[in-house]
Structure formats: structure tokens, C-alpha cells
Automatic annotation (TrEMBL):
Keyword Calcium: yes
Sequence ranges of Acidic residues compositional bias: 622-632, 662-676
Annotated source species: Solea senegalensis (Senegalese sole)
Protein name (Swiss-Prot/TrEMBL): Cadherin-related family member 5-like isoform X2
Subcellular location: Membrane
Top-rank taxon: Eukaryota
GO molecular function: beta-catenin binding; cadherin binding; calcium ion binding
Domain called Cadherin: residue spans: 33-129, 130-237, 277-358
Positions of region (Disordered): 555-586, 608-676
Amino acid sequence: MDAIQSHFLMRTSLIFLLLYLFQPSAAIETEICAGPKYVDVVENNSVGDVIANITIIHPGVTLTLKPPSDNTFRLRGRELLTAIEFDYENPVKSYDAIIICSEEPPGERQMELKIPVFVLNVNDNRPVFDQNTYHVNVSEASPVGTSVGQFAATDQDKDTQLFYTLTSDSMLFKLRSPTIPDVLTNATLDYEKVDNVRLVLYAQDTPLTKPEKSPSFTATTTIMVTITDQDNRPPWFQPCTKQNNGEAVICYSTGYTGSVVLNQIQTGVLPLEPGPLYAIDGDSGINEEITYLILSGNDGDYFEINANTGNISMLKPVNRPDTIHLTVLAAQKKNRNQFATTTVTISVLLKSDFRPQFQKSSYKGLITKVGSMAMDNDKPLIIHATDKDYPEEINPFIVYSVIGSDDFSILNGYLFMTKDLPDSTLSLHVVATDDSNGESDRAELIVEVKSVIIPPGSYGSQDMIALGVTLGILLFACLVVIGVLVHRMRKEKADWRKIYEVNVFRSSLGQSSGGFKKEFQYTNEAFQNTADEGGMGSGPSAVDDTPLTQAVRKSTLPLHTLQSDDTSDTGSDKADSEKEVKPILTKERRMEEGYKAVWFKEDIDPNAKEEVVIIPDSRVDDSEDEEDEEEEERPKSSNKTLKMDTDDTDLDSGLGVKMGDPPEDSDDDEALTSNL
């Protein structure tokens, strides 16, 4: 019995438990309101913005916010509103809006509606740099690509990527990348060229190629980079000229010059040109102290140098007229590996008792154009200074220079203008300097620059051109006349050719006589005083003259047959029978071309001097005009005949011709006589 009751009680308890649990579940499952599963709210919203609408399923349902939701949200009817301004940068990024839905009358049914609210981030904050200005140092010896430093900005918008831009007046630095603000060296640095660089760094919270409508914020900072000097240059003697040798810079000095007087000691610091001897550290940022030393050239110990200042002074007089070359060393005191040398040239001069002195205190001159000489009235302006230390007061070491203008130069005492200048009057000074001792004198120089004006009666450039054209025409005419004369001279060579042929003929006569040579004379009297049309004279016995006939007959015989008057004609007849010989001895004057004739004045006299008269042939190609011109050239009062005297030796060779006057009894026109 007890067992049955226990079992009954357990069943009853279980049933009641199930009924109790069943009643609430049925109430929850019955929805009387509904809303969105979640809501996104953009930060920086306005208070009272509607973020959700609640749906009521059954009428008579009321809505209330369950605390603490009522601090964040509020209800306006069925609308869920924001009660605060959300900020994504706050620690809380999401909220729950819990709404209790109750059915009227109270106590019937109710439910809780939970809506999660998430805050969304927007770009609403500017980037910020830690400092407005950064100061950094970098060595000039830093290699290209060395990092100077990182300069990052921060943005409260945690998820925002920042982009950087670097600007500068130089290209010595750059950024590693647009998103990494690491500043690097972009070129070799040189403290002497640039020792400070100002950089401006920009940070932007949107890409550099952002859309126009996207919000963007920018931050700016300044980076002051100081380039520090390194000890990488030797001392530089001053003054010097800087020159670039690749990335290295050198400063070239031409050295120093000075002078002392022979056998005299100079007290104090020795004056030098172009200035006192001193050097500076090539690294101006370090500017280490310099020490000086004479390396060579001071064999006689005449000079000493101050190790700290570089000033040179004399210890004793120089006793030889010479030029002394000192080699001076300048080195850094701390780093003796940095050093430089220079040369000091000291001239030993004779004592000077007088200074150069100009002959005038003022010079005035007129110059008309570049390169022209200055004139003093109608004479060249001479600028001259004398020196009584030299014979005739002429100092060969005096050099002249013009002070006040670089457009003039003085050469050998004459003033020239080297550049075109407008018409004006310049007031300058001229200086005469003795290069041997530096003594000088100064005089006033007034130069009037005036354009060239051609005075009346002078000739200008147009006149010179006309004169040149006229001279050219005259020269051309002279050349034409010379050409005509040369042409005529070539035609007259025929006469000289005849003389040569006679010489050949005379030689052949001598050879035919077996080498026997005697002087004899050929004269043709028949052609003297010619009056007939053929130019041949005919006296009473011109035809029947027995001596002439004999001479003509003998002309056909060899020379050895003409040695005596009583020689028989038998040999001649015999020779004619053996060989026909064309006679060249005749009293007829023929005009045939190529024909030559020789005639005799009297019988051949073996003891007489030979005289052959050659009549110039009148060839067909010779014009009558040329004969007329030859007649006009000869004096009318007397007819001269050209002679040629030769000895036996010259006759055979054709040399030794002697020109002379013809004999008085020769009246032949233009006869050429050759004494053979």
C-alpha cells in the first residue's frame, strides 16, 4: 500500500511541474511585438535620431524601455530614438536596446524585445604629429640612403591608413615610401655647400588619389636637418680658387711673391702679393688650427716663418742678386695628415733711389674707333714714365695700366681702345708700375671718344671702292696690251730663226772645205739702191757685171774651190756634172715660202772679214700691216742693219753673237748682217 502511494505522489508532482513549466513557455512563444535584429548607428549622430521602428502585433500593447537602456535610447510611440551622441573612439562600441512589450490590461501577457545597436566609425579626426618642429643632425659623410629618422603621425580613427608627402628646396632627402615616414639621404652631402636643410612633412588620412567627395584631413610638421662637417679636407692657402673634381672640391692657390733689396735687411713682416701668407681649414665646420713650416728654399737661412701666423720675416741680408723660392707647409695641428704646400717667390733687387715718374701730370687724347690709337692733336698720344735709376732714364720693368675702365690698353706707350664706346669724355688715371720693386706713379688721363668724321677733301669708303674699280680696269687693259705684245714677239722669232739657219749653213761650208776656215765677206751690190717693183736695183751693168756673174757661179761650188781667183772652173763643172746642187747664192730676191738667198757685195776675198747679209723672207702668212709697223719703228733718217760678229769657235756652236751697227755703205731696209 505504501508503495502505491509513493508512486502516486511522484506522478502527481511531475504533472504539476510540467504544467507549471508549460504555462510560461506558452506566454513567451506568443509574440505581441517585433523589431529589427540589430541596428547600426554612425558615430557623431544627433540626439533624437530614429534608429528603429517597433512593430505591435496585437492591439493594446504598450512599449517601455528597460533600464539601463533608457539612458541610451528613448521611445517615441513605436520609434526607437538615440538619447546620446555615439563616438566610435569610446571604448564601448555596441549597445543593447531592451524594450518591454505589455498587453492590456496589465498582467495579461508581456515580452522583452532586445535590439543590439552597433556604433560605426567614420573619418572624423585629423592626423597629429608629436611635434610641430623636429631637429635632427646628419653627417656629410653619410652614404646615400642613410636614415635620418622616422616622423610618424597618429590618428584617433584607429583603422585609418595615413599617407605622407615630403617637400624641400633641395633633393638631398626623400621618404622611404608614401606610407612609411622614414626620411633618407638622397644624394651626397657637402657641409661647405649646404649645412642646413628645411623639410616639410605632410600626413593625410586618405589616399593621395582620394575621391573628391571623401572627407580628408591633413597634418603638417617641419623637420630641420643640420648637416655636420667631417674632417675630410686639407688646409687651403688664401686666396684660392675653388674647383670641383668629381665629388671632391679643391682650392687652388697660385702662390705668393715678394721682394727684398740686395744687401739690405727688411724689418718686420715681409710684404707679399696677393696678400699675407695664411691658410684656413678646408672643413669650415671644424676650422682646426693651422701650423706653418718652411720645407725648402731657405738654404742661406735668410728667412723665418711664424709657426702660428705664417708671417715671414728676414733674419739677415741676402748677398746675391737672385730669386729665392721658398716651399711652405701648412698642416692641421691635431690631424697632421691634412696638409698643403705653396711656393713663395722672393726677388732680390738692386737698390732703387728714384721712383718712376710721368713726363706729364695729365694726358689728353682722342680715340675714334676700336683698335685705333689715341691722338694728341695731329700726333699719337705717347704715355711715358722715366726712372732716373736707369741709363737714359728708361726702365724696362715699367708696366702701364689704366684705372677706371677696362676698355683701354697701353702698348709700348700708345693708348688703344679695346671695346666700342659711345661718344663721351672719360676721366681716368694711368699708372706706371716698376715690376722689379713695386714702385709706381700715377697721372690723370682724359680720353675723348668720338665717332669718325671724314673732313672735307678726304676720301671715304665709296671713293676707295671707285678707285679700286678703276685700277682693276686699268690692270685688265695692261694685261691685254701685254698679251698683244707677246703675240707679236712670237711672230718675230722667225727672223732669229733665219740667223740660226745661216750659222748652220756657215758650219756646213766650213766642213765641206775640210775644216779650213778663213775670214771672207759676202756682199751683194746688186740689191743696193733698189728702185724696181721687185725691190732689186739695176745699174748699167746690173746684169752683165762679170764679177757678179762669177760670184753667182761660184756660189754653187764648195768652199775649198773658192780659195783663189785663178782657180779653174773645171772643178765646178765637174761638180755640177756629178751632183746637182740647188744654188743659194743668187742676185735674185725671190718671195717663195721657205726660200733663202745669199748674195755678195764683191768678189770673195779670202783675207777679208766675212760678212753675210740676210734678207728677212716675206712669207705668205706675214701681213703687210706688220711690215708697215716695222717700217714705222725704224728711224727714217738712217736704215740700220743688225750685225752678228762671231769667232770661228762660236760660229760652229751658234754662240757668241755680237750685236752692232751695220756698215755705212749698207742701205738695205731691215737687213740683218752677221759677221761670221
